[in-house]
Specification:
Number of helices: 18
Shape: globular
Low-confidence stretches: none
CATH superfamily: MFS general substrate transporter like domains
Radius of gyration: 19 Å
Number of strands: 0
Structural class: mainly alpha
CATH class: Mainly Alpha
Largest sheet: none
Distance between the termini: 29 Å
Order of helices and strands: HHHHHHHHHHHHHHHHHH
Number of domains: 1
């Protein structure tokens, strides 16, 4: 069958990234309601948000390695979206906190699939301009993050748990798009898994772990924070959506700038500024500062993917999976840790303490040896 043009592959994967990352943030918008219904504290709410990321952290590396070894990227992507669709459909029928925890982990099985495989495909198709291509791809994910609180907030506000039944639809549509319209040349890669574990990729992974403390941890509790300030749950989710939607511009810009200025310079500057603006937001909560903070959180996301793809060796998917597994580890830790800090000290101190992670990550990024772009 004729190979799909690179641009069409990118466009389909932009949509797929939108759906995947939208799925990854469908639980946080309903945390205030779940907290009331099940009488749980923010720590246990954080554990619920953590479970999908924990599942992804455990499975991401073995899935990527097996996918490259067998040459089955397309099949694995299709299966991943079907798992996500079914998992959220089952989640919408859950009647107990413990059942929600179990299904949330299974959601992580679906989330473990997408990023290494899709970014490996894009890095192969756009060898000379991978920063820009991954930035455009990242815009789809950013739109998914932004749409999650807004769409799920509306569904839950007007339909309750019945509205969550509709979450099955995007995953099935995406699986069908990939199955029928993406045709790529896939060759098994026989180099060892161990060859992908290098000091450079581990350093990139540690630096990348910073982002989930903000994109997953702080964002998970932003609706609850704004709700505690007197906003309605619907308005709190809308404002969180505004914070996230700027990533649609920030991620392509970050990828473009990193092709010119270098990966580590963009990452270090973004982390520093995201920490500064979160401190400003805690001191003076307003929508403008929240949006600027969201911009700098999103700016380095595509950059870390390009950095990982350039880390060396043939196993691009596995390189990205090593980095992204560390991101998922950070994502697994962040919601529970921040929830515990909120329970102990309140939102303001908890958010302020997390900025230390951003400043540490910015410093560590400067120690990563640059690699040649392209």
């Amino acid at each position: 069958m004729k190979k799909t043009p690179a641009l069409l592959i990118l466009l389909i994967l932009v949509f797929a990234h939108f759906v995947n990352d939208w799925y990854s943030i469908c639980i946080p918008p309903i945390i205030p309601s779940l907290k009331k219904i099940y009488a749980i504290d923010y720590f246990r709410a954080g554990i619920l948000v953590t479970m999908p990321y924990l599942g992804a952290a455990i499975l991401q590396l073995p899935v990527a390695h097996l996918t490259e070894k067998k040459g089955i990227r397309k099949k694995v992507l299709v299966i991943g979206f079907l798992i996500l669709a079914v998992s959220y459909f089952l989640f919408s029928f859950s009647k107990t906190y413990m059942l929600m925890l179990a299904i949330a982990f299974f959601i992580g099985v679906g989330l473990s699939v997408y990023h290494p495989q899709s970014m490996g495909i894009i890095s192969f198709e756009f060898k000379e301009k991978k920063g820009r291509a991954l930035g455009i791809h990242g815009a789809g994910g950013a739109l998914g993050f932004a749409s999650g609180p807004i769409i799920v907030g509306f569904l839950f506000h007007y339909m309750g748990f019945r509205g969550l039944h509709l979450l099955i639809v995007p995953g099935i549509v995406t699986a069908l798009l990939i199955f029928f319209f993406i045709h790529i040349e896939e060759k098994p890669i026989t180099s060892s898994f161990r060859s992908a574990i290098t000091l450079r990729i581990l350093l990139i992974g540690f630096v990348a772990m910073v982002t989930p403390f903000f994109s997953r941890g702080v964002s998970a509790f932003m609706p609850a924070f704004l709700y505690s300030k007197g906003q309605t749950l619907l308005m709190a989710n809308l404002h969180t959506g505004f914070m996230l939607i700027v990533g649609v511009l920030a991620q392509p810009l970050g990828g473009f700038l990193s092709d010119i200025l270098g990966r580590r310079a963009v990452i270090a500057a973004s982390y520093t500024l995201s920490g500064i603006f979160l401190l400003l937001f805690v001191a003076h909560p307003c929508l403008l500062i929240l949006i600027i903070y969201g911009f700098f959180v999103a700016l380095p996301v595509a950059v870390r993917h390009a950095f990982a793809a350039e880390a060396g060796g043939k196993k691009i998917d596995t390189n990205i999976a090593v980095m992204y597994t560390m991101v998922m580890v950070g994502s697994s830790i962040a919601p529970a840790l921040i929830g515990k800090l909120i329970d102990a000290f309140g939102f303001g101190i908890a958010f302020s303490l997390i900025t230390v992670v951003a400043f540490a990550g910015a410093t560590l990024a400067l120690f990563i040896k640059p690699v040649k772009n392209g």
